[in-house]
């Protein structure tokens, strides 16, 4: 199965596989994403990056060799600004699942996310994949706007709680065809 390169670039970004020495800095970046859990109802995992590095965050029946966790750094000053994790070949062989993408909140709204998605789309299309999928909390309006603007305009399914309240949560799986 063809996969993202160990390191690749866009105009302003360097994306590369996480090394064990990267984990402390990337955990601190991940820690700044804790606000996202107000919309998805999940517990914040302080060891998320380490666990992903060691075991992956795999779908049912998934294999570690199909999983990648990568750091996102700026080309200009080689500064860590985010994190990307993907699973190659889920739910079908010609699908990519974006398990997690986060750019530090103080860096957001500078076009890095759109640039990254455009570069990912190009890479995955060249590798022969037909679609990219992502799970988005329905209460996360900013993320929904970002993903729809990025071409994720098909809804695969909506799942979670049936009633809306402050203490209930639902998600949608969005698809971008390549």
UniProtKB/TrEMBL annotation:
Gene3D superfamilies for the chain: 3.40.630.30
Domain (N-acetyltransferase): residue spans on this chain: 13-178
InterPro entries cross-referenced by the UniProt entry: Acyl_CoA_acyltransferase, GNAT_dom
Name of the protein: Ribosomal protein S18 acetylase RimI-like enzyme
């Amino acid at each position: 199965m063809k996969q993202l390169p160990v390191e690749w670039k866009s105009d302003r970004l360097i994306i590369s596989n996480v090394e064990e020495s990267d984990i402390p800095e990337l955990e601190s970046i991940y820690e700044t994403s804790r606000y996202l859990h107000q919309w998805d109802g999940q517990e914040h995992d302080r060891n998320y990056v380490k666990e992903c590095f060691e075991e992956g965050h795999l779908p049912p029946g998934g294999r570690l060799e199909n999983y990648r966790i990568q750091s996102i750094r700026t080309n200009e000053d080689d500064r860590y600004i985010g994190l990307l994790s993907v699973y190659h070949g889920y739910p079908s062989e010609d699908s990519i699942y974006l398990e997690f993408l986060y750019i530090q909140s103080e860096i957001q709204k500078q076009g890095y996310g759109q640039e990254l998605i455009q570069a990912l789309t190009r890479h995955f299309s060249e590798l022969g994949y037909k679609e990219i999928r992502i799970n988005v909390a329905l209460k996360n309006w900013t993320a929904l706007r970002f993903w729809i603007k990025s071409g994720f305009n098909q809804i695969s399914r909506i799942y979670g709680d049936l009633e809306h309240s402050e203490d209930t949560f639902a998600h949608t799986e969005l698809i971008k065809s390549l």
